[in-house]
Automatic annotation (TrEMBL):
InterPro entries in UniProt: Calcineurin-like_PHP, Metallo-depent_PP-like, Metallophosphoesterase_sf, STAND_NTPase4_dom
Domain called Calcineurin-like phosphoesterase: residue spans: 4-247
GO-annotated molecular function: hydrolase activity
Organism listed in the record: Massilia forsythiae
Name by which UniProt lists this protein: Metallophosphoesterase
Amino acid sequence: MKIRALHLSDLHLSTKKNDHDQHTVIAALCKDIENLRESEDFDFIFFTGDLVGKGSYSEDYRIKVKEDFIDKILSAANLTQDQFFLCPGNHDLELLARDKIYESGLQNALSDRINVNEFISEHESHTSAFRSLEKFNSLSADFGSTSCLKRTPLYANFLLHLHGQKIGVAALNSAWRATGRSNDQDCGTLILGERQIELSAKGLENCDVKIALVHHPLNWLSPKDFASTQRAIARNFDILLHGHVHEGDGLSLVAPHNNLIICGAGCLYQSRDYFNGFSIIEINTKENTFHQETREYFHGRDCFDVSVRFAGGGIFNSPLKKNSEVNFVLPERSVQRICDEANRQLVSSAISDVAPEDIGDLFVEPRISRVSPNQIDVDIASQGKTNLISIPDLEKDPKNFFIWGGKESGKTTTLNYLAVRATRATALSGNVAFCIDGRNFSSASSILSAFGTFCDGALKRSEIERALETGKATIHIDNCPLDRNSLQYQNLVKFTKLYSKNKFIFSAEDSARITLVEQALPDLGVNVSELFLLPFSRRQVRALIKNWFGDAADESSHILDGVLRVTAKLQLPRSPFLMSMILWLNERKIAFSPVNYATLIENFIEGLLEKLADTNFRSEIYTFRIKQHFLCELAAKMSRDPVHSISRLDLESFAVEYFKARPQPKAKPLELINHFFSRGVLLEIGEDVRFKLECFREYFVARRMLDKPDYLDECTSKDNLLKYINEIDYYSGLKQDNIELLSLVAHRLEYASRAVDLNITSNDYSRVASHDDSILDSLRDRVHDLILSRPNNQEQEAILDDFDEINLHTQKNDKSENKEEKINHSSIEADQIEVVQYDSKYSDYLKHLILASMVLRNSELVDDNTSVEQIFHTCIEHWSRNIIFALVQLEILSQDRGSFTDEHRNERSLKKMVSTVIPAIFLAMVIEYLGTAKLADVMNRFLETHANQELPGLITVLLYAELGLPKYMDKIEDFMERPNVLGGSRDLIFTNLLTNYMFKKLSSNDQTRIEAFLAKQAKTYRSSTSTGGAEKAAFIQQLRDRARTIKISSPDSIKDK
């Protein structure tokens, strides 16, 4: 049996008496249908919503709809009203007919899947909910009446007979909760309802083909409705036809028990020069085929023709059913458990009384860049746009991705969100998704156990392996191991190579990039494209506030201003975690005035542990101090574990021993532990217990350092110092006046510098900038020693011994077969172990420099100004040496690879890249680790007393300017007046000021001075001999035009801090 039908959608019929353009397109459509009918007749017309532009449907309007469109289409197709089927779209609603008070109550009542299903089960008695649909339903009742099984205010279903076959059609309603808000604000909020699908499918069970009509694509549904509804559609229908997306598409999505084909028709009319299109579908049950041809209107020719933009020849073909395909399905209970687990990891989950519980309702899509943050400003300044990728594009792209992000920048939340979306789509895709912590890759057994834990045991290990073997999995790996000498890294690479058919999305903290040569990723077993998470823009902060507090947030503008003031004051990037902390403190009306990030964390945790509100949870026993002390001791214990976790059993034993050593007659250890879980301080994942966020553990370790000097000594010992970098950062931020610590980290920095023996000083900058080969020759061997070193024989044997012990242990304790053994027994040859990171001495040197800079930044209460100035000089000197080393390293490695010929090396563009981009990368690090306005006086004195040191002076003056400190343009101009300033320094200042001019909000005075400075430098670059003001004025006008264009197209600064 073959069915041939027209799929039309989104006419938006005008209320105008004579809309010439729309009539022209309709006439062309009718002519095209007549021509197509000459080759073969049509059996049905399916119209998927937005028949009209406004849903008033007055009597005159109804007549117009029939006469101007429906009657003409039916005549052209040679069909009757009983062969025309339609469902409502959002434009078909008469929104003014709604009762606002009733609507508000209904919105609150439809709070979850259970309530939605209960309401739809009884929807025929809730007539007020469908007042906006009454006129549409009255019109639609004129069509398909002879085959209609049931028609309700919400849906209609039909049983058709054709060529001895039975065809089931359900006209579903996805628009009944639409609001008509502009800019697609309904997307992600609509409700279709699992129960609507089930009710509409009654009576169609024995049909040969079952077709569902709906207006909105499924991704417009609310997260609370999305998963259960798509599963219900996949269970009950073969084909889903939708509209609303103004392009045609055909997508074969394999469901667990059948092949659900989803097709969009495109928009029939928007304007004459818009993409106006429709589709022809052919279903052949005998040959088990589905065929779709998409056609579009061509304004210049005034006719419809094949839409080649849709597909080759405008054709999409798919098998109708694929029952033999290997597919996977998770029970609804497991899907919900996975979603609940992701929700539990949200900062807001256990503490907020108003924030949504579901990650889909709270999540704000981050800005994800295809290029590093250091390159973004250059792209915008030169091209006026950024190379960003959206979440949907990331999901659709078959490539593997590696996402870099800053500390607490939302990497884990983003991966959880992606995994939840993929899990909710399992019913349609037949694929499964996993989100795994890379720290769990210590053995093959732990890897597969982590997969089983994520899917709540819904899939057996053999089923997980089958999904991996057949490429039916999307695997998200957080905290990706990058150290090639680690067991986790080796197991990861073996795993990805073994299951390379699947899609992988990795993430790691971007601080790890400093240990990678040329910041290049090591081999991960599969090819990856790197992405970068950017801080929130003002628009995204506003969206998070709206999601957190809801539409009724009366003080949203006030909250937004407060959030931005805090981030500006502390010079912090707007990370999702930072925003969540501030929003919760606002929600609870907790007063806070942080002086740095550590004190903001302190404010947040004190609120979390109810320091000022110890009236609940047996506060007479578990005082704030007891809770804090317990967590400090627990954090210290967890910190001794490589992955900073503890088993539940060990946690309970720890709690018992804690109170045994510190008797509290009424204390119940398990009660306190459960309290920390409920407050979102601790998190249990599988068999492991961790602090919900790493910064919580780091903070409590820092608190213990404050309380116990001997513990501080232990953590700052020579062997431990670099293990506790973040903890010491928090400690110094809380303490702020520890001159001994500041002196210690400065001393350790000097010691690490001597150990790495770069044998360069900041004065060598001029040699590098002038491409003096003598410095390359003197450092070539040192570069090779520090970068290209391999383990010696003893180190190689130790690594292989470690692997052998792990494999023996796994074989003895795990009887699982097949892939696990392949992971374990993948050969590891000594010559395969290659170190792509820097030599440990150089990595340690960099870490010491970062630590010294952070402690100096936090030491605002140290009263020894001489020491502070000396240590600032020390840090700036070492940042300068690292810039020089990076420049030399790039040149030497390029020569080694033969990628730069002598001719290329002399090109000016390449010299500029080497002399400006590398310092810009390090400058960003200096701003992050050393940037604070409280060092303004120190920077001023440094610039006055070190006028002969160009690179340290350049770093200092740009740091001063980036912080927006008083009279920063004076400092820049004074620097530029120094004798013999190098071209690379001029380039870097020019680029930095140009970027700030384009993206930062400037005072009129600063704007004028920057314009004059840039114009002067641009004239120098062009070697212009003009002395008049016309050239300068023209250049400044170009600047203003470019800046205006950027700010219109991207009003939220890309360079948000």
